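Deliverable D4.2, example record:
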Amino acid sequence: MSVLARNNVRVTGRGTRPMLLAHGYGCDQAMWRWIVPAFEADWRIVLFDHVGAGGSDLSAYDRRKYARLDGYATDVLEICAELGLEDVVFVGHSVSAMIGVLAAVREPARFAKLVLIGPSPRYIDEPGDPEDYVGGFTREDIDGLLDFLDSNHLGWSAAMAPVIMGNPERPELAGELQTSFCSTDPDIARHFARVTFLSDNRADLPKLRVPALVLQCSEDAIAPTAVGEYVHRSLPESRFTQLRATGHCPHMSAPEETVAAMRAFLDA
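Output generated by the structure prediction step:
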């Protein structure tokens, strides 16, 4: 199976330097459509869908491979190798931020910079550990979310999309996210949710040797400010930018501000 077909890879843009955009949980590459036009003139933009999402080849979904985020990081590296990408700027939203970190830890020479939008290395609070880590959720919270998803995929999608998106004055954004959630294969959605929300990649952050931008939204119910600050402190070379944008998806709700923050980092 072709790597490019497996991940529904699409290349656009008139530049030569590559920018690889990786979508978050329950989404697909279409979510980047407000960001792509700002960079098409100067960059070679690579869009793809994680296996199990969008137009990817569902037959390639292997529960063993994708039982950890490393399986998705492997796909990222295979896409880069197939296209001969070097000096890559990787832009990852939500869970894909950590997927990008894992890929860049494994092959640092492949990447120039990372843009991490709403990253979280651990969603569950760890009170009493040496750092007294705050992830934003208790284990009971996460178990409840996963149980709800198991029992009612469509209901979970309807309930969670507005929480994740925020911006209640713009219900069409949550509606698009809900539609995307609902269109995902339910079994894959359940499995990926467990991999995402039960992951713990805190120990991987100090291993990163690629400069990174942490883009932190205001009032983010999924990755609160304390998480973004933790990621920034844990990365050897990073910049932290607090956006005025609210919610967890600023590339959809505030693309102009997101593009401006990206440009400031990439041009530095």
